[in-house]
Amino acid sequence: MAPVAVHGARRVVARGWGDIDLAFALILPSLLLRMVHNQIWISAARYQTARSKHRIVDRGIEFDQVDRERGWDDQIILNGLLFYVGYLAIPSARRMPAWRSDGAVAMALLHAGPVEFLYYWFHRALHHHFLYSRYHSHHHSSIVTEPITSVIHPFAEHMVYYVLFAIPMLSTLYMGNASVLGIVLYIAYIDFMNNMGHCNFELVPRWMFQLFPPLKYLMYTPSFHSLHHTQFRTNYSLFMPLYDYVYSTMDKSSDQLYETSLRGAEETPGLVHLTHMTDLQSVYHLRIGFASVASRPSATGAMWWYMWVLWPVAWLSMALAWAYGSSAFVVERIKLGKLRMQTWAVPRYNFQYGLSWERESINGLIERAILDADARGVKVLSLGLLNQAKQLNGGGELFRHRYPKLRVRLVDGSGLATAVVLRSIPRDAKQVLLHAGPSKVACATAAALCERGVQVVMNPNKEYDMLKSQIADSKASYLERRSDNHHTPQVWLVDSIDDEEQKMAPKGAVFVPISQFPIKKIRKDCTYLSTPAMKIPETMQNIHACENWLPRRVMSAWRIGGILHALEGWTVHECGDAMVHADKAWSAAIRHGFVPLTKA
Questions:
Q1: CATH number, domain at 506?
Q2: Residues 544 and 528 both lie in one domain
Q3: pTM assigned to the model
Q4: 512 bridge partner residues
Q5: What residues make up the domain containing 278?
Q6: How far is residue 83 CA from its own chain's centroid?
Q7: 402 CB-near residues (< 8 Å, 6+ apart)
Q8: How far apart are CA 124 and CA 236, in angstroms?
Q9: Domain final residue, candidates 263, 290, 322
């Protein structure tokens, strides 16, 4: 859009702001408003399909669909360029008034007549095998639609649609009753109807059709168009089903699906994973944020410039969440076999968990989420990231003691996390350095390594004394204090470590994280392993967002630990000091199709 901006700047410099007419002035702002409008639909639809009972197609979305649809804003930019060309080429476009009612009525009639009629037959032609295989199949690759699916077409299709939608605009320009707001509102109507029709949940209320029965010929519903994406040979209309009725191509199950979707069915997840935002920009990385951003690991930095441009919005969202975020919200819904799972997010960020005056408030949010899950009949609730911090709530033990009759099982997943750490350590390692605080995973890992006969070297601090008391006397000799003349091991088990401490590691050292947060990579001559995690089974559905900094289709071991609790039907809590044995958790993970990231 640089030519538009440069042209506008040149006119202002040469002849002042008075030379900029309304039509030209709205080209760029209207594009921005369209992008905001579309993003609102995307976020709202993803939020509703994660929590709503009015879902239409109960199937998942995968990464290939997100990748295919990530260029949804390209057509908005192209549309803006075409408007600019039209502004330069058509003299009457430069003299349009702000509003004309007769022009708006003419545009509505021209849309209902020629545009809808021509689109209907063009759409039917696209479903002929010759055109379908070459063009329209790209759009229909998305069986489960999202609002942005509506604009995912090959370039040639886009150009035909632009010609169709130009009929009302060019006609009113020719008749002399076009207006700037009339055209802007017409484009907004197209965006609104496109987005609404491709939502995978029913939102059009029944009373609208009861109040005005002919409306069913003039406005489609999400369930109406969803049938076109599942049945392919019915419901061809653009926004007005009239022509499907006229030419007998309306799907016979349209009314039934509408009623079924509107009525919906309550669904109780078997597992809830309770997480929270990390840094300020993580709000965009949520599934309900930017789809293309959420589909990549947050640490890649591939869109850093985009994130910095939106930095003020990140601050605003943090402030609003801090001020008005009174409960956890649903961000994701996934499925593995018969187990249905949801991810809930506490509206707080990493830095807030470190504020002493915020602890009571955060524990209140976690407690409300636990009680809500318990009341809904959820079997397992896994505490993710800092929601299980020992300094915050004793690793979840606070809630177990406060509510001894809880039916939902609280899980921190430390047993599987320990198992993953142990299997990340090279088999030939005879000595490791444990650079970590007194976490459950650190203690369990150290104890297991001593039992295995691996020398565990620790800094001489209180953690050493505490861990020493937990190890059998026959194996206590394998736990050593670190000294200046001590040989530095090649394998470092770390939870957090600063730059200077990393520089002390020998060349070729292997850093094995034992916490949920990754460490900063500053050494090119060392190997950095992933935070404890595993690849998920291929049968797990609706996975199209990365879990924080982890790669695609990879989950943290702590989160998987909760899934195993639900799949295995374990009836004990795994929080506080309680912990599932590492070997038991590992065997269950392998049995259910989870795959290790590394082979020691």
A1: 3.40.50.720
A2: no
A3: 0.93
A4: 493
A5: 271-415+540-596
A6: 33
A7: 367
A8: 7
A9: 263
